[in-house]
Specification:
By secondary structure, this protein is mainly beta. The protein has one domain: Beta Barrel (Porin). The protein is built from two helices and 19 strands. The protein has an 18-stranded antiparallel beta barrel. The longest helix is centred in the N-terminal third of the chain and has 24 residues. It starts with a helix and ends with a strand.
């Protein structure tokens, strides 16, 4: 017993001496978000639309370990992301959402490690290898880094005002792998070793005193649907091969702040490996974003324009749809808002006797032309009151026989107060004059308006 106490005392002394060293070499940062919603008529149905009321939260943590000068290791995780009061085994994400953007199917599984990478100063630049945030470049338009992460090798080299970037990405949940390990694939005729999704990126950013601009080129090689049929005559496998060009600019010009970004895609959405077992589908499209804000303190005002083309249903050999990942860009409280769609599900009448057309709204702005005017005032240094009016219409029909492309018009009013430098509280009201887009092809559907009340507490540290 005495030896046991000596061992325990020794361990305690070692830990006590080591703690100051560890504390000096580790830096923690993160955020805690709580947001509540009351939405009056999510289904947009006249006299039949159910209301939705819930509160969600998320803890996001990051730990940076300084191993030595020029070498560090980063861990990141999301935790306790759930609806307040939901049962421990609840499934949160609506069925329309991609698993890429889910934290976990059940609350009891939702401590999710999503960052683990090494950072090293190498050859005058910075090399990062491991699981990192993906899908962020330029403005928030087109970004999906808030929930998308995966294996990445990135090298940044800075010389004067120029930053040169090389990236290799592998998409999470895209790699084929048998639960029994690689040996389980031996003798499996459906196994294809290169099944997965990879991206090769080259980019540069030029920075000056009042702004920056850049260009990214990405080659996307998606072989998840590649042929694995050993009989070529019946092989209908295909690959998605995209060339993506992404220029942007952000600049302060006197009292006016402007930012703009274009995401152009060319290549093949479907390139069949065996002809004529399938018809190739070409990809040629461009998504456009521009915004300008004029500051005449304590007020400001501005305009925002977004165009994300939709896919023409009458041309099956062409894929005209715009960039599919806009979840970090949420210009409205209701329309095309990722967080609202994630927790409240699709918008519009998607079931029942008077079925119309539901829109998932879970990848931000898709198939839409959006024009927004906004005005704000900062009567106190810590208080920001903003109002915006948005008009949105679909670029292409959402279904065969679509009656209208009008998404509707939305008025949003928000007030954000910084209680502390790291703690802010927002209250908001949104009203949607719903358009007949949500009727789909059914003229019998009676569409009605919707309104939203929300508040959000955000802590960063």
């Amino acid at each position: 017993m005495k030896k046991l106490w000596i061992v325990l005392l020794s361990v305690a002394l070692i830990a006590a001496f080591a703690m100051p060293v560890c504390a000096a070499d580790v830096k923690f940062s993160g955020s805690y978000v709580i947001q509540g919603y009351y939405e009056n008529n999510r289904a947009l149905l006249k006299n039949d639309g159910p209301s939705v009321m819930d509160t969600w939260q998320r803890v996001r943590m990051q730990a940076d370990f300084q191993v030595q000068q020029g070498l560090s290791f980063t861990l990141g995780w999301d935790a306790f992301e759930k609806i307040w009061g939901a049962s421990r085994n609840a499934t949160y994400a609506p069925g329309t959402l991609s698993n890429v953007y889910q934290l976990s199917a059940g609350e009891n599984e939702n401590i999710h490690m999503n960052l683990a990478y090494v950072s090293a100063n190498l050859a005058g630049g910075l090399l990062r290898v491991g699981y990192q945030r993906q899908g962020q470049f330029g403005t928030a338009f087109g970004d999906y880094g808030d929930y998308a992460y995966g294996p990445r090798v990135r090298y940044d080299y800075v010389t004067g005002p120029w930053t040169w970037i090389l990236i290799y990405d592998k998409s999470e949940a895209a790699q084929y792998y048998a639960p029994g390990g690689p040996s389980a694939n031996i003798g499996n005729s459906t196994y294809q070793v290169d099944q997965g999704q990879d991206a090769y990126v080259a980019a540069f950013i030029y920075t000056w005193s009042k702004g920056n601009a850049g260009l990214l080129y990405k080659y996307l090689d998606d072989s998840r649907n590649a042929g694995n049929n050993p009989t070529p005559a019946t092989d209908v496998g295909y690959k998605r091969l995209w060339h993506i060009f992404d220029p942007y600019v952000k600049a302060q010009i006197g009292p006016v702040y402007v930012e703009a970004e274009v995401i152009a895609i060319t290549g093949k959405t479907k390139q069949y490996e065996t002809q004529p077992n399938g018809t190739d589908q070409t990809k040629n499209t461009a998504s456009i974003y521009a915004s300008a804000t004029y500051d005449f303190a304590p007020m400001y005002a501005g305009l925002t324009f977004v165009y994300v083309p939709g896919d023409d249903l009458s041309t099956p050999d062409k894929d005209e749809a715009g960039w599919p990942g806009m979840i970090d860009f949420n210009p409205c409280l209701m329309l095309f808002n990722f967080d609202l769609a994630r927790w409240n599900g699709s918008m519009g009448p998607g079931s029942g006797s008077n079925i119309g057309l539901a829109s998932a709204m879970n990848q931000g702005i898709t198939n839409a032309t959006v024009a927004q005017v906004f005005v704000g005032v900062k009567p106190l240094p810590k208080l920001d009151i903003k109002a915006s009016y948005t008009y949105a219409t679909a670029d292409k029909d959402g279904t065969t026989g679509q009656l209208s492309r009008d998404y509707g018009k939305e008025l949003d009013i928000t007030a954000t107060y910084k209680i502390y430098d790291n703690l802010s509280y927002m209250v908001g009201f949104g009203y949607l004059w719903a358009g007949d887009f949500f009727k789909g092809s059914n003229a019998n559907v009676a569409i009605d308006n919707d309104y939203l009340l929300t508040h959000k507490l955000t802590l960063t540290f």
